[in-house]
Design a protein that fits this description.
Number of strands: 8
Largest sheet: 5 strands, mixed
Order of helices and strands: EHEHEEEHHHHHEHEHE
Radius of gyration: 18 Å
Helix content: 40-55%
Oligomer: single chain
Number of helices: 9
Length: about 280
């Protein structure tokens, strides 16, 4: 079964429309998919219409920004009620926080000699909530830097002028939101937070103790030893296992839709949990 439970459209910081994303995933052989845009479900209805036409199974999805011990973490929600009032209120709070952060980034870049960056990021976002990738695209388009990576290295990365920190809700709150909406909570890409293995295990343990349901054992293309290690950690903490590309745009083979190794046989796939019903 070809499954991809973590990808992004232009409703957050991806490039493709939800419809184009579903078409690309179908062409790649994906049969079960979740559109997990950052702190929004705006693209899910369009994605569902397209997925149904293509004979694919779409799982309701979102990627919430949260925190653990002062560090940013991402939690993927799957299989929830799209219209549940708790979920809708949570999304509204997150979107307001993102809007405030975007204004602060724009102000900082203006002080650094780059006026108009907020308007430029809004134009790049084209109706979505602007984030640092949209600011980066604007900086590239205006010739301030030559590439997205250079934009982050010079202006938007950790410790740079456009790095506006926000204290996102604790992961316990996000898990509670998702459970109240009938969904499951998945700790996304645990090996990508820059933690030591000991600290990563502590984070996963805390996630499990808070009621988390699954660990993203595979995030795009990664070495087999990492996959096996994360599978063991998931099992030790009583967590199901999830997998996804974390796709944002074409021509990034390390995050290509559905193009990653299958879950190890000893994993309990998250899509077999009753809430997902796949």
């Amino acid at each position: 079964m070809h499954v991809d439970l973590h990808c992004h459209s232009y409703c957050s910081d991806g490039i493709l429309s939800p419809e184009a994303l579903m078409s690309s995933a179908n062409a790649a052989g994906v049969r079960i998919i979740a559109l997990t845009d950052h702190d929004t479900v705006a693209g899910v209805p369009e994605a569902r219409r397209c997925a149904q036409k293509l004979g694919m199974t779409l799982v309701n999805g979102i990627e919430f920004s949260g925190s653990w011990q002062g560090r940013d973490v991402h939690i993927v929600g799957l299989g929830f009620d799209l219209d549940h009032p708790v979920l809708q209120e949570a999304i509204a709070v997150q979107q307001a926080a993102r809007a405030e952060r975007a204004e602060q980034i724009g102000e900082r870049l203006t002080r650094a000699g780059i006026p108009g960056s907020l308007a430029g990021a809004l134009a790049e976002a084209d109706g979505a909530q602007p984030g640092r990738p949209h600011f980066a695209r604007y900086l590239v388009a205006q010739g301030h830097v030559k590439s997205m990576s250079a934009a982050f290295k010079r202006y938007l990365g950790k410790g740079k002028v456009g790095d506006v920190r926000h204290q996102w809700p604790p992961m316990e709150d996000i898990i509670a939101w998702l459970h109240q909406a009938g969904g499951v909570a998945v700790l996304a890409h645990p090996a990508k937070y820059g933690l030591t293995r000991t600290k990563m295990c502590a984070m996963i343990g805390a996630f499990s103790e808070a009621g988390g349901d699954a660990l993203e054992v595979i995030s795009g293309r990664q070495v087999l030893s990492l996959t096996q290690d994360l599978a063991r950690i998931a099992a030790a903490n009583g967590l199901a296992s999830s997998c996804g590309s974390d796709f944002h745009q074409p021509n990034q083979p390390w995050q290509a839709l559905g193009q990653f190794d299958p879950l190890p046989e000893n994993c309990r796939p998250v899509w077999q949990l009753p809430a997902l019903g796949c």
